[in-house]
Amino acid sequence: MLSTYATHPEAREIVFDFLSDYDDPSILGAFWTTVQLTVFSGVGSLVWGTLLAAMRVSPVPLMRGFGTAYVNIVRNIPLTVIIVFTSLGLADIFGVTMGASDFEVQGFRLAILGLVAYTAAFVCEAIRSGINTVPLGQAEAARAIGLSFTQTLRLIVLPQAFRSVIGPLANVLIALTKNTTVAAAIGVAEAALLMKEMIENEAQTLLIGAVFAFGFVVLTLPTGLILGWLSKRLAVKR
Amino acid sequence: MSSVLYDTPGPRAKRRNVLLSVVFFVLLALLLWWVWQVMDDEGQLRWALWKPFTESQAWTTYLLPGLGNTLKAAALAMVIALPLGAFFGISRLSDHRWVRVPAGAVVEFFRAIPVLLLMLFANAFYDLYTDVSSEQRPLYAVVTGLVLYNASVLAEIVRAGILSLPRGQSEAAMAVGLRKGQTMTNVLLPQAVTAMLPAIVSQLVVIVKDTALGGVMIGFTELLSTRGTLAANYANVVQSFVVVAVIYIVLNFILTSFASWLEQRLRRSKKGTGVVLGKEDVEELNAAEVGGTFGTGAGGTV
């Protein structure tokens, strides 16, 4: 690196050529890992969060209690603590390897496990608040005209709930994208870890910061704009 | 108990609910029993591993100094971020495009970037361009990262707080002949600050949780990183994680409860306009349409 710096004739190349010195992973590769973390944990937390929300709105008090307890406990623990625990606790002490043979894959899967456990609590709250926005009168009117329980749910309540849930869920998805950086704490080779490595070894602090910041703006801005537009378009006018 | 999803249960539904309760209880008990067994098999339940936490040394040497640093960073970040956030929040409401647009761009930019990136950048920046000593640098970097991010979130809270006030307030101020600045400082801000208090306290929870990042990634000696030294000393990784998690839960639970107590109190109070911004309102305002933007960094409280 230093020799390149000294011998290069053109200033522009000096400033930018170090970006291509990193190829394991490259910047794009690191951001690809970030995207993968987001997608897998997004799907996982949507499934687990929906289950939790179903428990929290169920007529069974014990299920409601479990859902409430889970959300209140997990929400108040820093994500960093959860993710570091998956590595130092689950993997090292209890031997949870997530079916992975090498360290890299194991860290990746453990990070997803931690992100799912944490994000599901927020997904649950988003869905529950969406269901709560449907006025009681809607369901009462549905019953009054003779719809059965499943019909009420399928035709009246859930369509309205889904539409009001898009906005809050988009929030959670954007936060999840940013939260995947915490996986760097257990050595998953995603964007934040690469940035840490580069910023410690290279002199162009500002440039590196700008490149990675730009990467995250590119990831979160379209999500926010598209889903925000969608949630406004589909909002139930009351 | 009736909700939008189901009616008050009749005899059949009651029987089904009892059955579901029993099944769920058995599943839950099995899960707990299995966790207990696994802990036991790994020897994690031995008293020797838990005992350090009943003695004062583990607390005075490791946990309390760590907790102290966590609180210090969180408090500093909040105190610095609040005026900055107020500045940007009010700027975004300006009548002048050349003030409003740059302020909006700054706020949206910093909300779109993960806190960790800001901390890493601040750490490198202080290392290269300032003479902050290397012991102090992690604290500076953590606080800087938290301030940049949370100032932009607080800016949105301030903006939402001011926008939540009834229009009659600023109209009345204008009618009695106050200038724009006077309207803001004498009429809108005092009421908005009261309305925002619960949201600000809720944001403290986020700040406290984010300090843990600095512990792992840039060597700030807060609670999570002193846990590491403690575990290395007593060889009780799992136990120390449990204790640290409980500390965070209790701390954040107190903050959350305080926020909702404030919210309820403000809602009930006869003084003022009765406008309150709770945590959920802020999330909603983020998602919906204060001024027609759907920000990049929505979800600031997750």
UniProtKB/TrEMBL annotation, chain B:
The keyword Transport applies. GO terms for molecular function: transmembrane transporter activity. The keyword Oxidoreductase does not apply. One of its GO terms (cellular component) is ATP-binding cassette (ABC) transporter complex. InterPro entries: AA_ABC_transptr_permease_3TM, ArtM/GltK/GlnP/TcyL/YhdX-like, MetI-like, MetI-like_sf. Belongs to the binding-protein-dependent transport system permease family. Keywords: Cell membrane, Membrane, Transmembrane, Transmembrane helix, Transport. It comes from the Bacteria. It holds the Pfam family BPD_transp_1. This is Amino acid ABC transporter permease. PANTHER family: AMINO ACID ABC TRANSPORTER PERMEASE, MEMBRANE COMPONENT OF AMINO ACID ABC TRANSPORTER.
